[in-house]
Specification:
Elements lengths: L2 E6 L4 E3 L9 E5 L6 E3 L9 E6 L2 E6 L6 E3 L8 E4 L4 E4 L2 E8 L9 H4 L20 H11 L4 H8 L3 H15 L4 H6 L14
Parallel strand pairs: 3-4
Antiparallel strand pairs: 1-10, 2-4, 3-5, 5-6, 6-8, 7-9, 9-10
């Protein structure tokens, strides 16, 4: 069964689960009673809820003030089905639904990293990237898209041990200790409008 995660592309998510449980309903909003607690005023206290099905989620907007939008479409939705790879915006906060065939057991920090995985190209690259070898840069580029070490190993046709060693070298050269720190360095500068969307 495909394992699903809802990952936030900025730092707006204060609290949220790792992998989503099949058949379970999750609520998202600013309220501390929600499963996904968002720290952004463009999101309603109880903004939306979704139920996990086989390989997708069924999304319902809870009559939110600033709406729910899928894949950048300007028309707000009331109900929709979201599949892995699609993005959904609650007010100004963007999430992406990510699917994995197997849990990322080799990376205990992934549950924390899932709160702000970046699926966008970095807007500014620290000078330290110049010190990465070609192999490390290739691994880095894949890590930045949210892939786990096992998945990177599969994509690059390398052993998981090799990818893990490259990852440790990347952390050292960039001066970070975890995946969340690495990803946070490359969050795009999302300047939000003063007024939320209507």
């Amino acid at each position: 069964m495909l394992l699903l995660r809802m990952v936030c592309t900025d730092r707006s998510l204060e609290k949220g689960p790792g992998y989503l449980e099949h058949g379970k309903c999750y609520r998202l909003g600013r309220s501390s009673a929600c499963a996904f607690v968002i720290n952004d005023l463009s999101v309603s206290r109880r903004h939306a809820e979704f139920t996990v099905k086989d390989g997708s989620i069924l999304l319902n907007d809870l009559d939110s003030r600033n709406g729910t939008f899928i894949d950048g479409v300007r028309e707000r939705i009331e109900h929709a089905e979201l599949t892995p790879g699609q993005t959904v915006r609650f007010g100004w906060v963007v999430f992406q639904l990510v699917g994995h065939e197997t849990p990322q057991d080799d990376e205990p920090e992934m549950s924390e990293a899932s709160t702000f995985i970046v699926h966008l190209k970095p807007t500014a690259q620290p000078n330290a990237l110049e010190h990465l070898s070609q192999a490390e840069r290739s691994v880095f580029d894949h890590l930045l898209t949210g892939l786990g070490e096992k998945e990177v190993a599969t994509v690059l046709n390398l052993s998981q041990h090799t990818i893990h060693n490259h990852t440790k070298a990347i952390y050292k050269k960039l001066g970070v200790n975890s995946r969340p720190e690495l990803l946070a360095m490359f969050l795009p500068d999302r300047t939000k409008p003063k007024e939320p969307p209507r």
